[in-house]
Amino acid sequence: MAWTYVFDLDGTLYDIGNGYERRCRARVYEYMRDALGCESVARAEEIWREHFPKHNQTLRALRRAGYDVDADAYWARTRGDPSEFLTPRAETRAMLDAIAATGGRRLVFTNCHERQAREALRALGIEDCFDGVFGAGGMGDEAKPSAGAFERFFHAHDVRDPTRCVFFEDSLKNLRAASSLFGMVTVLIAGKTLDEEVRENDVNASSTDTTAVETPTSFVDLVVAGGVLDVDALRRGAARATARARLALGFALDRDS
């Protein structure tokens, strides 16, 4: 049975430090000021930082905070034009092509809306590399890392055995859910998101909230350091990978040096 390879988008298929994520977040604060009546960008940021960690998706967080948000207007305004920041990277495409050669499926699973996710993939030059894109439009009122978001993803793409899925993510929260709830093989892209989640955990060290960051070794099968995902990065993390990660990622790890 072939493996299914599941990729988050932001911070996984491109380096989150390239400025795009920072600009999207700035657009969120501007949208909150201009469309939702926040008195200033600074106040919008305070509200975002209060609510986002509880819900893991800004649209969901704003609605839970009591704002009436038009989803189409929100996604179009806050994601902007990804081609201003995102450009094709040959090494990323080579990795996706290597997966295709194994017969494995390649899917995107993101908290972003599918429309804007495809625009980003197009800017990265890899839209044609994927067999499906699943995001906020298909999740309804769910978002990663909720079990419901994963279940909707599995149903939409006829994933019958999640333990035969490899999940590439930059969020420990999402990887923990994937591993503990569904037995997916997990690959952490260790970058800016990890730093933010660790800081969040430090602040909330006494909290019993299930979204708090835990020691990753219990639910991460392989760590990609440096925030950039490609075959070479996978191979560098192989020495500390679990046996099942080495099995699932043989397309990369078994290559000659």
TrEMBL record:
Keywords: Hydrolase
SUPFAM superfamilies hit by this protein: HAD-like (SSF56784)
Gene3D superfamilies: HAD superfamily/HAD-like
Keyword Hydrolase: yes
Keyword Hydrolase: yes
Record-level Gene Ontology MF annotations: hydrolase activity
Domain of life, source organism: Eukaryota
A UniProt-annotated Pfam family: Hydrolase
Cited PANTHER family: HALOACID DEHALOGENASE-LIKE HYDROLASE (PTHR12725)
Protein name: HAD-superfamily hydrolase, subfamily IA, variant 3
Species name: Ostreococcus tauri
